[in-house]
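Title: Request for sanity check on SET domain-containing protein prediction

Description:
We are preparing a figure and want to confirm that the structure record we downloaded matches what your pipeline produces today. Could someone re-run it with the sequence below and paste the raw structure tokens into this thread? We only need the token string, no images.
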Amino acid sequence: MASRINSFCKNPDHITLLLSSLRETPIFNKGLSHEISQYGSCLRVGAFTSTTSYFSKYKTSNSDDRSVDPTLKAHTELVSWFIQHGGTIDKAVRITQDDLRGVHMQVKADLPDSIPRETRVINTPISVSMSWYNAIGYECSKGSFSKHGVDFPRQWIDEIGPEETFAFFLMGQYLRGAESFWYPYLRTLPQPGQLTTPLFFGEEDVDWIQGTGIPEASVERIKVWDQKYDDAITKLEGFGFLDCGEFTWELYMWAATIITSRAFSPKVLSGAVEADDLWEDRVSALLPLIDLPNHRPMAKVEWRAGEEDIGLLVLEELSPGHEISNNYGPRNNEQLLVNYGFCLTNNPTDYRIVHLGVKADSPLGQAKTRQLELFPELAKNVEDHYYIFNPFYPLLAPETSMEHSIFSPALFNALTVMESNARERDMLEITDTGIQITPAYGNGHSIYAALAQISFEMIAHAYNLKASAQDLAPQPTTLNQTHAQIYRNGQISLDYAALIVATWTITRGREHKRGETWEDNKVLLSELMARVPAGLLSDEVLSRTRVRILERPSLIAKNGELFRLGELFNLLPVEMQEPAQTCFQHILGIASQEVPPVASDPQTLFATVICLLAATYNSPQARSKLPPRLTKWVSFLLEKYSLAAVCSEEASQPLRMFQEYADAEKPGALAPGDGVDWLAEGSGWLEPNWLQWAWTVAGAEMVMIPLQSLEILNMEGEPSMLKQACLYVPQE
């Protein structure tokens, strides 16, 4: 990266972005950061002066005609060139321009009828496409691609690869100006100095993306491009290529951005390229005019490749005056901003990418390592697909669960592995399609724990986004700022909606008395939604979140699986509940005086109750009276947690002190006359080894859930992140 710092100084936008992302690191104190940002500001004059002159030298003779917008005029001339070389545009289509959508395509407003589906609105000849195949002068029995005056050494092309070759080929065509075959097309593209992705944000815009993941992603992209550019230009100079100095870093950034934002998959060239030469993962193509339509999520279009041309077909009826849109795929706003320089308000395919930071020696890290050992072909798939979707996200399989409709299966399964206990990890399932805890009795613990953990993350993420925007102006003043604000607000809204979904499942886990019918759930959900602070989310988002909760089944089939300490006694028969609770309170009162840490240690408190429940189970006369749920659960715990194995574990200080005290006083002395007369001799009640066993169970089966997770969103200042300890007791 250091090799590019001096070059950044030629373009202050680059250094501003880089430094703004580094200001948060310890090496930049306030004084140094201020001096450098001011230095970058002084260098704004003359940015891109080395490249903007090329097209300015070749203005048309009518460029001073103010009756036609020059941008629209350039596109009109592009259409003439396009048709001259065999391209066609449907007679029902026109190219127009307005302030909202810029230059775009639409169905002519004066048509009597809609255009039907399967209409081929544009037909682009392969001869006017631009790609790596042009750079190498590719020829085969199916077609040929001309270099059009830019000829690089073939050995250099082979050494740097198709991606960098294409970027340099585009630069070479740009440098040819009006002599380039593609000049009518290139002059309609955003020019150097006009790009709007965050890499080119000015100093006044960069503050609007602080606190988001955009600066980090942009700097990472600069690092990658920096290395690729250095390697390519150094090798090109080594071949003695003339005019290497004109292939500047600034121009490379422009070319790489144009390709990233406008190029199509090489599948569009399949009609003219032999199958063995179609490098789908490394080659892309620029297609004049087909790249003109704006993006609309879920627009029904198709790019149809032929032997001599590529057609853009609309697969839906479009009425007169309707804009003809393209579909870039299910892009979220971060991808749209980073790659294309814009965002969409209420983008239905928006989602947030979550970075878990998996350590190699963690359970998930070890599982991923094992997965690669079993399925080495997965090594080429570097993306983890850890996403939080917005509640409008449309691309879901019918069988997708409610939780997976908001938290991508890869993310949710990864979280359950990270938050699982040892017995759940014994049921880890590793396949070529994923890593997950096998659904089974008792494995809901990891689901609740995962939802609790992601809730804390979303609360913190939303707070940080809001806090980082506190010093911004009330309203954006540039288009870049507007898109940055849309992105930021969308991320916050996404966090809030997903938090409602997580809170819903956890709330059901805390609901022990209400029924589980459709009407019961509707009432419970209404109570939950009433807790959402007013104005936090739009009515549309709230309504859609409600629908998402009710329309899909939860991963948790039953309510009432999370218990606070006092609620555990309700698992006993009614006649045993009061004596058991009185016994516990008596023990707690005595022990707290002698061993104060016991009263504040939830694991030890839960362990004491678990020890009592296990002792009841171990007493034959009492066991016959226990309800099936409690009998099955204690039996399950005794099977999964070996008494002999856990007694070798080191206990906490409160438990050790409690064990010593209990052992010295004897159970009878601790609880005289409490009415717990059903415990048989040898049941394990308050014996050190059983207390140790119960303490291990409590630690593994506890879940720390957020307290007042929705109400906290409306509080002033940093969220308190209050937690509540609950014990997971599965339903049958």
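Thanks, this matches our download. Confidence is low (pLDDT under 50) at residues 1-66.
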